[in-house]
Specification:
mainly alpha
Amino acid sequence: MDRFVGAVQTFLDNISSVEWRWLVLAIAVHLAKAACRSRAWRNIVAAAYPGSAVRWRQLAGAYLAGVGVNAVLPARGGDVVRLMLARRSVEGSSYPTLVSTMAVETLVDVVLSLALLGWAIERGALPALDVLPRLRAFDLDWIIDHPVATGAIGVGLLVVAGVLAWRAHPHVAAFAQHLRQGFAVLGDRRRYLRTVVPWQLADWTLRIAGLYCFLRAFGIGFGIGIEVDLENALLVQITQSLSTLVPITPAGIGTEQALIAYVLAGKATVPELVSFSVGMNLVVIAANVVVGFTAIGLMLRTFRWRRHLEPDRRA
């Protein structure tokens, strides 16, 4: 925690050097990316429920609400809010089906992330396994320092998962049917390629464009050429993907800073890289919270979402 507070202080100390026009553009690109992402998800849900009215505005609101809550809660807690609001918005929908639509939504992400990861490994941009423990990410410190307790927690989670699976056994057939329904769009390849993939490719294009803008705003690694600038943006995207694999903290704060300091070593000083990473995260979190809780307020007519969604949570 002390290192995180210090990183925030470093960002505040260097805030006067930020190029604000690039920062504003980065926020605009980030919001456009979220719009593309929600549109792809809406089309996946529409294929799962062809007899229901699936409105993009409502699904976009649910998506943004989830993003906003994920910005302040760890372990993807916002995804629960996203599912609850989507369940209310689509008549006849079920949680298992909506969960599986979210799995379909990640297919393009998996392919592109693996391609980027392979590229980074091939060029030696990522730290070797023996280097990882020395990076000392904010959110992984406790895991590294307490391996026995971490293992015990992992075993406990597996036991809980086993018990839940055993108790759910009588309902497995119906549950499996709902899950298959969420993959309906994959049964129509032309529809999937026409209504989902383009939006997700646009999402990824805007991701890289947004990171480019953030790098320009903080003046990291520029002046050599556009190819190097884009390469830096791709490297930052890889660190973001890796940092959210185990969502211990909101937005993967900690792991991302450690990875960025490694993959962009030599492009700027370590304090400058930490300032960039923390500053970018704080700006994105602020934007996500504003649009997310605005969506919650408009959809629920209140910001007290926990109490309002309690019946859905129990269900």
